[in-house]
Design brief:
This protein is an all-alpha fold. It contains four helices and no strands.
Length: about 70
Amino acid sequence: ARAAGDRASEAAALNNLGLAYVSMQRLDDAEAAYREAADAGERAGDVDVHARVRGNLAELLVARGDLGTAA
């Protein structure tokens, strides 16, 4: 997706990567993947993907107790 310039697909793939990292308890990697996915979704102008990714990032931050950043 990245090589093809398809930012919406890139965002979706990075979101899925973040989900996989969460399932493996690799929370720092998950946060990085979610942040990159959010950027790609925003650049693509895909509000659905961007919102889904931001929601996943917020859930991760809340689970880690980082309420200030999650808001």
